[in-house]
Amino acid sequence: MVQWTEFERNTIQDIFAKMDYEVVGPKALARCLVVYPWTQRYFAKFGNLYNAAAIMGNPLVAKHGVTVMNGLDKAVKNMDDIKGIYAELSVLHSEKLHVDPDNFRLLADCLSVVLAAQMGTAFTADVQAAFQKFLAVAVSSLCRQYH
Amino acid sequence: MTLSAKDKAVVKAFWAKISSKADAIGSEALGRMLTVYPQTKTYFGHWSDTSVGSEPVVKHGKTVIRALGDAVGKIDDLVGGLAELSTLHAFKLRVDPGNFKILSHNILVAMAVNFPADFTAEVHVSVDKFLAEVAAALAVKYR
Description:
The complex is a heterodimer of chains A (about 150) and B (about 140). Chain A contains eight helices and no strands.
């Protein structure tokens, strides 16, 4: 089981309590599609992804960004059993969506960059460590049912 | 994945923009890396203090970012321009190349923290590509 320090728990709860999912989700997903264009392979049905401006303004991308954040929210609310909470989501991403797990790490990196821009100096090295540890656990749990 | 003319222009423009804070960004990136990825501390056993803002971290962060600024100037021939540094990293420092990616990520985070409005997705992709090319050039002499 993942061991969380008090600092890590508090930091994660604090970050997500203050986060506007409607802003951060869309920004992070759009950034991922721009910075790592091969990730667009999963969004062929989203319409116009032809350039950065189109991606940043695409409403389907924005909507899905929020969906992702709501998925992370489940982990925030169940930090002691993210593995269990994500079992179904893991099966979904593997069996139905066929997402290469490397993409989770790419999105996680973009989420860190977006949050860093948002929080500025409040995103200290220790806060970054806690946030990235949380994302790593979420990603690992999402990968668990792949076979 | 190579640097297009647009990538080079974007990197040059952004580097000019951050130049006044470059040293601070370098030091911050290194400090973040050592804190967030503790395994990277294994290369700095000779430092008394690897925390953010410590003297060796500040000093070495400057060294790294200045070398990167230099590389921006050599962006049309990174392999040639970084040949000496590649020799250094391959034969003396022997840094596992996986760590270049880790440091790159932390440089991107430091850029986002210090220039949130300017570090757009478009700048991010060009800088990320540039850092990857630098890493590849540094690894040329490894084997």
